[in-house]
């Protein structure tokens, strides 16, 4: 077995004379001693007996980076190629490959790795080591595997400049690019930490990134969450007893003080080089990179997160690009967010969140997810949680509350059709704001939640956009849209774009702003409202005023909202995390129906957002106009954003309009916009009529299948009364979990 015993004598010599050396230095130069001791303690506490194992394709810079990291940590450095393989074989690696061929080489390389052991070292693997499962399992037992993720085009350029013409897997008919792409699956399987390495990043910078990433990996204490209503000095008193991590906020949903969870140290930031390294990446690859940086591996390891993302965005989306960007006209582009199973942007979060939730919750408790929806969330959350593994469905169920008369007929049919053995819909004789407020009150009713836990062993959780995990996947598609424009040659990286989003609860809008904070060059975030334009008024005046306002039913029901929950997260951010101020504002809104921002906060708000609104008449006119000129049918929410974008953009840069739902979901309004005189009231007949237009995009496959299955499906309906809602919840728990 290969050991690193050759390093021990030097270490023993250093240890034997350490005391006298330290004493002399401490007495003569106390400041220098303190600095050296701090450096020694930092490096040894970082590494301990674990190894830092650098992995990546040939040409990733593993050897050079390993040497620099080793120097910084003052620890042994081992290059598997030079120090293990060539020593074991008594020949160069290229000679061995030529001598035995690809398959035998991998086996011999793996055997050498199985005989190798080390501790407290920096180890640089070969590019092909990860292809031998047993060897990697052996070396990973005592190490943290760091994946140096370099874009394939950069690797090919580096190998070409070095004149490298022989690597494992390269053969006639198999290109270098094919080999590198094939290997990625093995790198993704084994790594604990990913470090993005652009083409022009110096090895010294990469080494610092490695050290920072290892520190983050070893210290989950850095990534805690606080409530938007906690004081500046820390958490709210109700949450003072323990720290909250990602897995906690996923399951808890709403903070105990009624606030929303946000990361205590803010969101991670990507450099321009890191974003540029994702230009050639697929949507799934981009999602994994972004979410790895937002979710600590102590909560969800990178390998498990990759599995969840692949499951969520693989076969469940009808478009291979997942969230494609389509040119509409002029400088306007559509971000199509409706290719998921339930035909709206909510699928991006709600195909992913159920799997995150199932991984994070303790096995000893059952969970009932409560959801309030103004339309699209309902079917998306029902579909998402119904796709869990059978064992998870036995302990996780979801109930969806929606305004019985406040969604489109197709949306209602879809919510009824998406009901499964662990997923139910309940219509409420009120509006969305009542449903959302009721759920918030239920979560903060400790007597009721405590009763459910004690009596039935069941905890409540939220899957609305108030849940932090719902926001993260939305950040991904805003970032991806920008990268797609760069990839298509529309812009170069660094050039600004505007984004226009139909918004009611402010979650999608906030996610775009978060993408901007993380380094995507978004210039203006444009909020588009319908006639329920409380957000537009607020952004223009700083006054959030619900007095005398009643919810207006519109052709864009998903934004028929007066209380924008996620606005609280944004205000907490611009108020320098002043939870007391946020508490004051939202208590005033709850009790008096209004609040007004201070002038300095209004100025910040107006630097970040502009806003406009659109009438139903203008919405339908936009749908007709766009179809007449392009053959493309917008849904009613996208049409609202299109109208507002036309009014507010200055045409000096591209604008990305979020197409948040498929037009099929709003067939009556679409048929009216297309000036069809007689409209059959049957949702399925409406879709068949729309399909006869052969428009772009075609009728949504998943929606059509769901409506075919629905028939005259049943659902429960209840009064707008808190006690009635709580009774429904208790009955559902009894029926499913008992």
TrEMBL record:
Keyword Amino-acid biosynthesis on entry: yes
Modified residues (N6-(pyridoxal phosphate)lysine): 346
Cofactor: pyridoxal 5'-phosphate
GO cellular component annotations of the record: cytoplasm
Alphabetized NCBIfam families for the sequence: thrC
Family from the record: Belongs to the threonine synthase family.
Protein's recorded name: THNS1 protein
Organism: Erithacus rubecula (European robin)
Designated gene of the protein: Thnsl1
